[in-house]
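sorry to bug you again but im stuck and you know this stuff better than me. what follows is a protein written twice so to speak, once as letters and once as C-alpha cells for the fold. mainly i need to know what kind of three dimensional shape the backbone takes. anything you notice is useful, everything is just below:
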Amino acid sequence: MQSRPALVAVISRNDEPEGPANMDAIVLIENGKLRRPYPEQTEAAQKKFGDIYFKAGRTLRVTFGGGEIGTATVTSFQQGCNNIHARANLSDNGRLPSHLSALATNSDLLGRKGSSRRAPTEAERAAVMKMVREIYLGRGTPRSLLQSITTTNLTATDLNADGRLELIGSFVLQTKAKARRDLLLIAEPQSSATFRAALVDFQSYKLPAEEFDSARDFIDQLDLDGDNVAEVFVQQHGFDGYAYAIYKKTLGRWRNVYSFLGDAC
C-alpha cells in the first residue's frame, strides 16, 4: 500500500530531443481529495517536497491518454522563479509526441487503462470545427472573423472508458486590434458523426500592453478517483507565468475544481 499521497506531475520533452524532460508537480491525491503539493512561493516547503518526491533516482510511471506509456527517472530538481522544477530521463519508446505533454505519477493504481489518445479523424475535426464556429458566433463574434480561428490543440481521447472518444480542443481568435477570444472545448460523441458541447470555457478580452494572454490549453487526462470518468488537466496562461487546472465532471457537468501555480517570473 502506498504510504504517501499520490503525486501527479506534468512531463514535457525538453527543446533538446535527446535531453532530459522537464517535470512540474500539479497535485497530490490523498483520501480522494486533491491537495496542493506545497504552499506556493514557500522555498522551505518546496525543498521538503522535492527531497521526497523529486529525489534523484526516483522513477515515476508516465501516462498519456489515461494509460501507461513508459517511465521517467528523476535526475534533479531546482528552484524556478516561484516554484521548483524537476528534470527526468523519459523512457517511452517514442510514444509521447515531441510537441505534447504527458502526466507522471508515483501511484501504482492510476492510469491502468489502455492509452486512448489519438489525432482526430477528418470527419471528427470537421464536426468539431462546425461547432466551434457556432460557439464563436453565439458569443458575438462577427462572421467575417471566423476564418481567423486558430486551433492550438485538438485531441481525441476516451474520458469515460466507453470505447467512444471525446474531442478536447483549444482555440483562439485574435484581431489586429488585440481583441482576443479563447475557447476550451470538450465535445462528447452523440453518434458516429455528431458531437455535443459538454464544456464551453470561452473568454473574450483585450490583450494588455505586455500581450500576455489567459488561454487554457489541454495537457492530458487521467482518472484520479476511480469513478471511470477521467479528470482533464489544462495549462492556464497568465501574466509572465502559467498555472495548471483540473476539470472534473460532477452531476453531469464539467467544472474547474482545482488550480496550482506552475511558475511566474
Summary: The chain has a mean pLDDT of 91. The first strand starts at residue 6 and ends at 12. The domain at 6-105 is CATH 2.40.10 (Thrombin, subunit H).
